């Protein structure tokens, strides 16, 4: 698997050097007055990159047949996407942060990975996966749910991504799953009514029902360990063997924290989506917040992006509805009883005290009340709260075969598409398994 990841990296770097050389060549030709149409073309897209690679691989990589050709394709595909993101960003076709020109991938620095889209890849029983040219690999977690669905035709494989995180190899399958989508909320969901959800640091979430959902049991211990190891890492000498060791340990703990948190979030979002008919959460400036330097905040912020992403597809699956409060709606600063707003509330104020009506309550609970109130006629003192929602009705969007990815790198999570699937639509989801 290492070798395949290396092959993908090699193809990426080779392609990038070709692109750079062609760009320079064109610039030189332009300075000699060669007309535009006669200048050297730049292999900017996947088909041109692939054509050039197939022509050159015998010379530049005589060992190419040792790895699956999918590995080289994955590297070139990543390059083509990077180039497209760069040019789209420059011409304004892509929103968000500016995307830089692709850079060479260094061994050990870049994330290792490659992808299969064709060939005989897939689960081999519940405990193994078959990866072309790699072989049969044992996996850590049983894939019973996936193999059962593949066996009776309820799911179809679209691709497999193999990647390495903190020394562990992961394979995630993109599958298309057929699942019936309910037309509306069930009786249980209607009984559960609307719920406001305030996501926090101390608790995983505070619900407007008064419930404080605790963080996963072992998360606090992992976070303490994370803090200790990251301090030790920061103190260690650059370039030393000890630093490399600590970096590996740090990455492992980071991965464990992320897993524990994701697990807790999945349990929470499934429960919310199945037992309430409307769920209200805050919108967050995700791109801005994940760059926050404070550890606890950073962890919870990525959690919020994840909650929104999960709720977006789970509400569709279970027939409930997700309402996302406007980014500027001050759910924490507003009194849930009278609408008075506290302009000087800080993050350390754990209790909300209203100077107008005298209300005094837990800060997060107050926020969750305000969020829940958004489903009604508005909130006292803030009647015209703009909300975006995936309401069935006026703004219904139908996504057939929309993809839902379960595993993503932190920082790249985008707020999910809002929309309602037509009954019996298909969604694609990723199933991850940890390979030994
Ligand atoms: Zn008040």
UniProtKB/TrEMBL annotation:
Biased composition (Low complexity): 411-422
An example Gene Ontology molecular-function term: DNA binding
InterPro entries, sorted: Cas12f1-like_TNB (IPR010095), RNA-guided_DNA_endo/Transpos (IPR051399), RNA-guided_DNA_endonuclease (IPR053470), Transposase (IPR001959)
Source organism, top-level taxon: Bacteria
Spans annotated as Disordered: 389-436
Domain Cas12f1-like TNB residue range list: 306-371
GO biological process: DNA recombination; transposition
Biased composition regions of type Polar residues, renumbered to the chain: 427-436
UniProt keywords, alphabetically: DNA recombination, DNA-binding, Transposition
Family indicated by similarity: In the N-terminal section; belongs to the transposase 2 family. In the C-terminal section; belongs to the transposase 35 family.
Protein name according to UniProt: Transposase
Organism listed in the record: Parafrankia soli
């Amino acid at each position: 698997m290492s070798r395949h990841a290396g092959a993908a990296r090699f193809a990426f770097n080779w392609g990038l050097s070709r692109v750079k050389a062609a760009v320079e060549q064109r610039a030189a030709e332009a300075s000699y007055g060669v007309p535009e149409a006669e200048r050297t073309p730049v292999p900017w897209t996947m088909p041109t990159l692939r054509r050039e690679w197939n022509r050159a691989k015998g010379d530049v990589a005589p060992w190419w047949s040792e790895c699956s050709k999918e590995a080289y394709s994955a590297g070139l595909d990543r390059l083509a996407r990077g180039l497209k993101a760069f040019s789209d960003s420059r011409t304004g076709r892509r929103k968000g942060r500016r995307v830089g020109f692709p850079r060479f991938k260094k061994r050990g620095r870049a994330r290792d990975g490659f992808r299969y889209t064709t060939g005989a890849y897939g689960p081999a029983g519940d405990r193994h996966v078959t990866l072309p040219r790699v072989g049969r690999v044992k996996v850590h977690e049983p894939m019973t749910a996936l193999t059962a669905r593949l066996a009776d035709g309820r799911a179809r494989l679209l691709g497999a991504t193999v990647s390495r995180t903190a020394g562990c190899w992961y394979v995630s399958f993109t599958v298309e799953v057929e699942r019936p989508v309910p037309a509306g909320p069930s009786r249980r969901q209607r009984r559960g009514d609307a719920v406001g959800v305030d996501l926090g640091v101390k608790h995983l979430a505070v619900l407007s029902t008064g419930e404080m959902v605790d963080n996963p049991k072992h998360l606090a211990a992992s976070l303490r360990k994370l803090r200790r190891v990251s301090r030790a890492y920061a103190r260690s000498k650059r370039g030393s063997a000890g630093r490399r060791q600590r970096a590996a340990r740090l990455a492992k703990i980071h991965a464990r924290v992320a897993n524990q948190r994701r697990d807790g979030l999945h349990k929470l979002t499934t429960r919310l989506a199945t037992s309430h008919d409307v769920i209200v959460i805050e919108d967050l400036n995700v791109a801005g917040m994940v760059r926050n330097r404070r550890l606890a905040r950073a962890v919870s912020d990525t959690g919020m992006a994840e909650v929104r992403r999960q709720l977006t597809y789970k509400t569709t699956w279970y027939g409930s509805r997700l309402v996302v409060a406007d980014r500027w709606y001050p759910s924490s600063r507003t009194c849930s009883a009278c609408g008075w707003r506290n302009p000087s509330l800080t993050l350390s104020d754990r209790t909300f005290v209203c100077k107008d009506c005298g209300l005094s309550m837990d800060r997060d609970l107050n926020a969750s009340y305000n969020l829940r109130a958004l489903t009604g006629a508005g909130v006292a003192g803030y009647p015209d709260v703009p909300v975006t929602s995936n309401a069935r009705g006026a703004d219904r969007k139908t996504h057939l075969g929309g993809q839902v990815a379960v595993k993503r790198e932190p920082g790249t999570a985008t707020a999910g598409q809002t929309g309602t699937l037509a009954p019996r639509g298909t969604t694609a989801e990723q199933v991850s398994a940890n390979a030994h």
